[in-house]
Structures are given as C-alpha cells and as structure tokens.
Design goal:
The chain contains five helices and four strands, in the order H-E-E-H-E-E-H-H-H. The chain is mostly helical and about 150 residues long. Mean pLDDT is about 80; it is low at about 35-45.
Amino acid sequence: MKIQTLALAISAVAALGTVSSAIAQDAAQPKPGDPVITQRGDADGAFVTSGKFSEPDGEKMYRRVCAACHMADAMGAEGAGKYPALAKNANLAASGYPMLVILKGLNGMPPLGQMMTDQQVADVVNYVRTHFGNKYKDAISAADVKAMR
C-alpha cells in the first residue's frame, strides 16, 4: 500500500510539473495584438544592448548601476559584502583611480566598465567625483578611458 501511495505521489508531482511547464511556455508566447518587444529592460527603459548599458548620462548610470551596491546616497553598505562609501571619498581625488576600478574591477567589484562605452565610464566617474560631497573638478574624457582600456 505504501509503495502504491508513493508511486501515486510521484506521478502527481510529475504531472504537475508538466502542466506548469506547458502553462509557462504558453504564457511566454506572444498573442495576436500584443506589442512587439525587441529588447528586454526595466520599466524605466534601461536596456543592455550589444553588451552595453543604455544610460545616457553619469547620474542615470550611477542610479541604475552603481547605487545598487554603493547606495543612492553613495554612503556604501555592509552586509553580504562591504561596499565602500563614495561620498566624501579621498580616493576619488585621483581621477584615474575610479576609472581603473570601473574598468578593471577591484576586490569584490566586477569590471562593470566592460558593459559601458568610454563616454559612459567618463560620465559616471565625473558624476561621482562632483557629487555626494566630492568636489573634484578635473573631469576625465572618453579619450582618457579609451587610453586606460
């Protein structure tokens, strides 16, 4: 009797998995009249296309990419990892330092610059270096980023 109950339970789980899979596949199929979506992104329109972020300026790049770890106020965070504060950060005085970290990564930070254009890297570095209590005015250019790549 126990073997029959176990076999019945296994059959029910297998059938449920098959039905769930079929429903998920059906839901993923576009219906007539649905809008055609050629790119995936968030509701705010941020996309990664051709392996690059689409954010148009340093502030948006910071808010959509960097703030996830360094926080919206750039005060950093500790928890599953340690994310250093970028606010009032003396390490940002040398413009090459944040550029290098974004392009090559450092410790737990991945090399996110690989998913940015040279201009986007320059924009986000310049944004962070002139906001959050940082007053470093010597801007970097896309040419500077290209040279460091």
